[in-house]
Write a structure and sequence with these properties.
The chain is of the alpha/beta class and about 290 residues long. The protein contains 11 helices and 8 strands. Helix 1 packs across helix 2, helix 7 (about 200-215) packs across helix 9 and helix 7 packs across helix 10 (about 250-260). Bound molecules: nicotinamide-adenine-dinucleotide.
C-alpha cells in the first residue's frame, strides 16, 4: 500500500451515506460520517428500531461533546443524521451505503439487495462483516463491481483503522472511492484480499487462541499472559482481556469459521468451549478469563 501523499488535496467525505443497521457498529459508522460532514440515513428493521438508533447516536454524540472528543457541536452533527424503517427511504444519489446488520450471510445479502434496488447505479455498496466472505455476499448483487468490504473497528468513532476488503470483482473505482472516504474520516486503511478472517481477525484470533491454550496447559495464569504482551510487546491490552471484551462466544464463532476454512491451527481450545457452555462470556457476563465488576 503506497504512503498517502502528505500534501495532496484534502480527502472529501461522501455527500450522502446510507447505513443499514443502527446497532453498535452502524451507530458508530453513522456518527463518524456525520461528524466528517456527510448527510447520513440510518436504515433499521422498523420505525421503532429507527427511533431507538437515533436516540443511541444522540446520546453517544452528547457524551463525545462532553468529553471534548467532537470537533463540532453534537446537535449540529445529529442534524445531519436521520433514520428510517425501510431501505426504500435511501436517497438514489447516495455515494455510499454501508451494511452493519447482524453477522448472518442470508440477512446481509437480503438487505444489500434491497438497498441496491433503492439507490442509483453509481452508489458504492459496502459490508462491515467481521468474518463472512465478502465474495459470497457480493454474489447476491446485480453489480458486484461496486461492492467492497469496509471493516470498521469498535468503537468506530475512536478507532483509527478501516480494513478494506477487496473481492475479486471489486472495481478499481470502488477501491479508490472507499480509500478516499476512509481518509476523509481521519482513519488509516489497510487493504486486504478477501480471505478468511481478513488480516485483523486472523492474527488477533491466532494470538487469542494460543493464549487460551497456554492457560489450559498451566504455562501461566491469564494476568501473567496478558502482562507479557501488554508490557513486553506494548500491546494496548493482553490477548485474554481482549477476548473478554470481544466476547468468548463471538471469538468461538470466528475460531470455528477459521478452523473450517484455514485448518487445525484455528481449532477452538477445549477451555474456550467449556467457558462458553458455562455462560462465562467475558465482560458482558461479568466473568471470562478475568472477573469484571
Ligand atoms: N461489534 C463489534 O465489535 C464488531 C466489529 C467489527 C464488525 N462487526 C460486524 O458489524 C455487524 C454489526 O454488528 P453490531 O455489533 O453492530 O451488531 P448489533 O446487533 O449491535 O446491531 C445490528 C443492528 O442491525 C439491525 N437490524 C437487524 N435486521 C435488520 C434489517 N433487516 N434491516 C436493518 N437493520 C437491521 C438490528 O436492529 C441492530 O440494531 C456484524 O456483521 C458484525 O460482525 C462488529
Amino acid at each position: 500500500m503506497p504512503e498517502q501523499p502528505a500534501d495532496g488535496p484534502a480527502p472529501v467525505p461522501p455527500a450522502r451515506v446510507g447505513v443499514l443497521g443502527g446497532g453498535r457498529m452502524g451507530a458508530g459508522i453513522a456518527q463518524s460520517f456525520a461528524a466528517a460532514g456527510s448527510e447520513v440515513l440510518v436504515v433499521e428493521s422498523g420505525e421503532e428500531e429507527a427511533r431507538a438508533a437515533l436516540d443511541r447516536i444522540g446520546a453517544s454524540l452528547r457524551r463525545a461533546e462532553e468529553r471534548g472528543k467532537l470537533a463540532g457541536a453534537a446537535d449540529e452533527v445529529l442534524g445531519r443524521i436521520s433514520a428510517a424503517g425501510s431501505p426504500d427511504a435511501l436517497p438514489r444519489d447516495a455515494c455510499l451505503v454501508v451494511e452493519a446488520v447482524p453477522e448472518d450471510a442470508g440477512l446481509k445479502a437480503r438487505v444489500l439487495a434491497a438497498a441496491e434496488r433503492a439507490v442509483g447505479a453509481e452508489t458504492v455498496l459496502a459490508t462491515n462483516t467481521s468474518s463472512l466472505p465478502v465474495t459470497e455476499i457480493a454474489s447476491a448483487l446485480g453489480s458486484p463491481g461496486r461492492f467492497v468490504g469496509m471493516h470498521f473497528f469498535n468503537p468506530v468513532p475512536a478507532s483509527a483503522l478501516v480494513e478494506i476488503v477487496l473481492a475479486p470483482g471489486t472495481s478499481d473505482a470502488t477501491r479508490e472511492a472507499v480509500l478516499g472516504w476512509t481518509r476523509a474520516l481521519g482513519k488509516k486503511d489497510v487493504v486486504v484480499r478477501d480471505s478468511p478472517g481478513f488480516a485483523s481477525s486472523r492474527l488477533g484470533v491466532a494470538l487469542g487462541l494460543e493464549a487460551i491454550r497456554m492457560v489450559e496447559e498451566g504455562v501461566a495464569g491469564p494476568e501473567a499472559i496478558d502482562d507479557a504482551m501488554s508490557l513486553g510487546y506494548r500491546h494496548p491490552m493482553g490477548p485474554l482481556r481482549l477476548t473478554d471484551l470481544v466476547g468468548l462466544d463471538v471469538r468461538l464463532a470466528i475460531a470455528e469459521h477459521l478452523h473450517a476454512t484455514l485448518g487445525e491451527r484455528f481449532a477452538p481450545p477445549r477451555l474456550l468451549r467449556e467457558k462458553v457452555a458455562r455462560g462465562e462470556l467475558g465482560r458482558k457476563s461479568g466473568q471470562g478469563f478475568h472477573t469484571w465488576t
